[in-house]
Every structure is written in structure tokens, then in C-alpha cells.
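Hey,
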Amino acid sequence: MSFEINIGKTRRTRVSEVNFNSIPFGKIFSDHMFIADFRMGEWENCRIVPFGKFLFHPATSSLHYGQSIFEGMKAYAGKNGEALIFRPDKNLARMNQSARRMAMPELPEELFFSALNELVSLDRQWIPKVDGGSLYIRPFMFATDEYVGIKPSDNFTFMIFTCPVGAYYEHPVKVLIDDRYVRAFPGGVGTAKAAGNYGATLFPVKQARANSYDQLLWLDGIEKKYIQEIGTMNVFFQIGEKVVTPTLDEGTILDGITRDSVIRLLKRRGIEVEERRVSVDEIVQAFDNQLLLDAFGTGTAATVSPIAEIGYNGKKMHLPPVSTRQISVSIKQELQDIKHLKKADDFGWVHSVESSKVEVED
């Protein structure tokens, strides 16, 4: 099926107003956004318009019942100025998995990639050329029935906007394990990038930050003894010569794209990687025996972020200096090099954005 995208470009770009050497994450937005509507069982009215606010009906169902999903992606500047997106096919697959779980329509591949290519190409001048910079891409979908009643919506809106960003974490993170709260249970929506997953974590994370931690390291909801993920990242531990990370089998943690990429790069190096249940007791014991050599999070926004400290029941486990962590530091650099095509893309992960015929005047 072919999707025609109508383009209404901005009269004047705002890109010259941005200091790309100092970009706060998620607060500066590019010139345009993509919108498509799902009506009568079909995607229609595909358009790109100048970035801006829009009106909601007070009874819009997503505002009341949380039928909303999203993804996070990044575009990078290639050495020849081209726009490069890392593994967008995985984002589409995960978004459609989230859509199925949340009783929402799936996105056709042609619609998703046409919108992505056109929008990123149109705003490619917003991709930071500075070290560590990228263009964050936020595809999202929400229910738009004007109805107060608990049922799956019949109408939806799909949108994409972009924003230039620097580092999500500017320093190694400190994470707290707090068994008073639970993020996800088997049979729930832990594997979906549903808005409610994140809303439910805000109060516990606020409490953690009041105690000088950056994020929570969540435990399973049944026994409260097995590690799942950090609020913004999947998590890895280096115990001796092997690397361990929580398994996806229980359906309670996000199938991270950066997670999968790191696992594949580690295995290619011949490093032993175990995807399995990881208990808090195992991590504490490894720390006490000086075998916990590294801990790091992985995610699109956070990339590969070292963990400086893990707090648990009053115990503060301080990890070795980042400068001594050979595996995570080198994997982070290898990933960055692949994303910018400074290193051979042997896995076929990088998508080069096609040039748009539409230009934006200065």
C-alpha cells in the first residue's frame, strides 16, 4: 500500500538559534513533525507540518485510560554529511509488539519508513556534528476516541518529532535497589513501551533521587530478589571474565535494541555472555569477593552508561573507576563507530536516510 505524505514546511528554520555545543536532552525540538491518523480501520491524512502545539478534546481516551505507546531512536551524522539511523527495523518491530499488547493498530512498514525518511531528511541540518551528539527521534501513537468509557479506542494518531541531543547521562550513574516498589509482573506490559510503565515509576525514582541516586534498579514482582532493569536502561554486570544480563524470557523487561547490539558485539569478541535470572544476592556476593568488575546500562538515549554505585539495604557497592573497565568502554566506542560508519557495519544495522526533495530556507 502506498502512503502519500503531504509536506507543509516551516517558513524559516530555527536551527541557527541552537548552540550545539550545549544541548539539554529533550528540550529543544526540530522544525517539523509527522502526523498520521487511523480512522475506519485505515491509516490516512499523512502529513509533515511545522513543529507546534495542537488541541485535544477533553474526553480524548488516551488521556484517561493510558492507551499510548512510543519508541526512541537516534540519527547520526555520517562522515559525508548523510543522516544515519541505527537499527530502525527493530524499533518498528518493537512498536508493533507494543501496539498488539495495548490493543492498538500496527504500523505498516512502508508508512513508518516513509515518514521516518522524509522527516529526518527534511530536518537533517538539526543533526549535531559535535562529539556525542545525535538527533533523537520519538515515534509515538495514542488513542483519540472522544469517549469516556473503558474500551479499546477505534481512532488513533501516530506522530514523529525529533530533537537534537547530547549525552543523556553526563556522569556515571548511581542506582538504588528498593524492594518496596515493583515495575512489572509476568503477564503485564513490562515488555511494551507503554506510557503507563514510565508514569508508575516516577514517584519511586523521585524518592531515590532525594537520596542522591539517579535511578532505580528494579526487582521482579513475585520474589523481589531477581534483577530486571533500570528505569531508563537494560543492565549488564561483569563478574570475573563473564558478562551477565537478565533474561527476556519472563516477559517483564524491555527487549532493548542497544542491549541486543551489545550482546552480539560481546559474543563476536569471544566474551562469555549469560542471559539468565540474576539475583541481588549474586551481585552482592560478587562485589564482596571483588569479582564485580563492571556494571553498565544500555539504551537508545543512554547508549552505554557506566554504573558508579549500587545501593541495596543500606549497603553501597562502589564499582571500579571507569578508566579500568575495558569491556564496557570499548563496546561503547565500537557502537559509536558503527553508528557513524567509522567502522564497518558488518551486521547491516545502519540505515542511510534518503534525501528529501524539500528544502527549508534559512
